[in-house]
């Protein structure tokens, strides 16, 4: 029987980051997962908060050469409806950042993580599936696909939407689907993107171009399932023309690269995100459409919280209620992001005039009220960051208006 402090089940991006974070924090870790698929041409946009976490793990210097900064994000209403929202543009410089984040090929992320895991002395890799997990008051007992039994003080379930860890803990889920599919591809273009990401809001969902290094970009194009089938059946030359037309030729001639993929859209949220000696991260806990670059960033915030609960307390036993504390801390963020993305996606699909009016009004307000726009930008980068900055700004304004406020400022 093999004994560890932390067992991480699942070898995708969330699982490997969780294993590395626990190990770098001083915990003895078992990473239980078959080898991850080597071919993944998707990309992930990591926001500033996530990039700083990657820096703390010592990964960013290896990832940075293959990443492209997102310095400007713009939203364009691409519908032909009666009430259309104005174009909204968000600049990272307005909130004191060089970039909101960076767009990174998943393949490169996985390569860097696998390389780091392979030389990490605190991680033992078990390249098999987990068959069963029994959670007790003092330990978790895991049975692996090769017959090995592993015990751990704490289990992190990062094993996706069909999580066996979640099922073993008796945690249910809420699931819902959408009449949409996401086409995911990379493409080259004649004109430079200028580190600008553009999201067109269309009647079938978002069409989101995100920069890659050089004159290349990644694309998530949300359409009806039958339209996704039609587009993927086109020769690459014709698909390239379809992408260029939808982008209004903003980047000139488009050349779609081989290997476009299609993913049906659905959402999932676990009834709870941890209990006792177990926590769920990534898509084992939450999953939603690829809107607003929230997916992996939300997963990394799960892991950051676990780092604070487990890795920052090295030398002390892992508390039997660590999973319950994780659940309480993560619930507000996960629920807010999940239902926020759901609401935005449904608003794009709705032909109900009051819904269109609310969306258009919201975009008008973001354009017309800079403090509100800055708050939204900061919240998108890191939850709580915008509210803290907004409160600090209000305090500063109140202080300045108090008698002697200007003199105090001059003295400083």
From TrEMBL:
Q: Name one Pfam family in it.
A: FAD_binding_3
- Names of the cofactor(s): FAD
User: Which keywords, in A-to-Z order, does the entry hold?
Assistant: FAD, Flavoprotein, Monooxygenase, Oxidoreductase
Known pathway: Cofactor biosynthesis; ubiquinone biosynthesis
Q: Per the database entry, which stretches of residues form a coiled coil?
A: none
Q: What PANTHER family does UniProt report for this protein, alphabetically? A: UBIQUINONE BIOSYNTHESIS MONOOXYGENASE COQ6, MITOCHONDRIAL (PTHR43876)
The name this protein goes by in its record: 2-octaprenyl-6-methoxyphenyl hydroxylase
Which residues does the UniProt record annotate as the domain FAD-binding? 3-314
What family, per the record? Belongs to the UbiH/COQ6 family.
Answer whether the UniProt record assigns the keyword Methyltransferase to this protein: no
Q: Which InterPro entries match?
A: FAD-bd, FAD/NAD-bd_sf, UbiH/COQ6, UbiH/COQ6_monooxygenase
The keyword Oxidoreductase is annotated on this UniProt entry: yes
């Amino acid at each position: 029987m093999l004994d560890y402090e932390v067992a991480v089940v699942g070898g995708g991006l969330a699982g490997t980051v969780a294993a590395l974070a626990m190990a770098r924090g001083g915990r003895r870790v078992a990473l239980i997962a078959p080898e991850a698929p080597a071919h993944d041409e998707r990309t992930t946009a990591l926001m500033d908060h996530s990039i700083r976490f990657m820096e703390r793990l010592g990964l960013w210097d290896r990832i940075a050469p293959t990443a492209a900064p997102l310095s400007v994000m713009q939203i364009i209403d691409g519908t032909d409806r009666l009430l259309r929202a104005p174009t909204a543009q968000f600049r990272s410089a307005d909130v004191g950042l060089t970039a909101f984040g960076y767009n990174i090929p998943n393949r490169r992320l996985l390569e860097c993580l696998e390389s780091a895991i392979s030389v990490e002395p605190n991680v033992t890799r078990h390249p098999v599936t987990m068959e069963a997990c029994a959670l007790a008051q003092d330990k978790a007992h895991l049975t692996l696909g090769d017959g090995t039994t592993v015990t751990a003080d704490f289990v992190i379930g990062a094993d996706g939407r069909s999580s066996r860890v979640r099922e073993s803990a008796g945690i249910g889920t809420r699931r819902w689907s959408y009449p949409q599919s996401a086409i995911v591809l990379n493409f080259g273009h004649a004109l430079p993107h200028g580190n600008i990401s553009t999201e067109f809001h269309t009647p079938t969902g978002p069409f989101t171009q995100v920069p890659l290094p050089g004159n290349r970009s990644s694309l998530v194009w949300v359409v009806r399932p039958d339209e996704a089938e039609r587009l993927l059946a086109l020769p690459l030359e014709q698909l390239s023309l379809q992408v260029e037309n939808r982008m209004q030729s903003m980047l000139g001639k488009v050349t779609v690269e081989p290997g476009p993929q299609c993913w049906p859209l659905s959402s999932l949220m676990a009834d709870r995100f941890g209990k006792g000696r177990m926590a769920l991260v990534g898509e084992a806990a939450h999953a939603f459409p690829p809107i607003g670059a929230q997916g992996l960033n939300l997963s990394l915030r799960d892991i950051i919280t676990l780092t604070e609960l487990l890795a920052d307390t090295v030398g002390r036993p892992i508390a039997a209620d660590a999973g319950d504390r994780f659940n309480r801390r993560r619930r507000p963020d996960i629920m807010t992001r999940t239902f926020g993305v759901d609401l935005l996606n449904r608003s794009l699909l709705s032909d109900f005039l009051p819904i269109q009016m609310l969306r258009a009004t919201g975009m008008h307000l973001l354009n017309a009220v800079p403090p509100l726009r800055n708050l939204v930008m900061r919240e998108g980068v890191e939850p709580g960051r915008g509210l803290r900055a907004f409160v600090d700004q209000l305090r500063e304004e109140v202080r300045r208006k108090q008698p002697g406020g200007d003199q105090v400022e001059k003295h400083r």
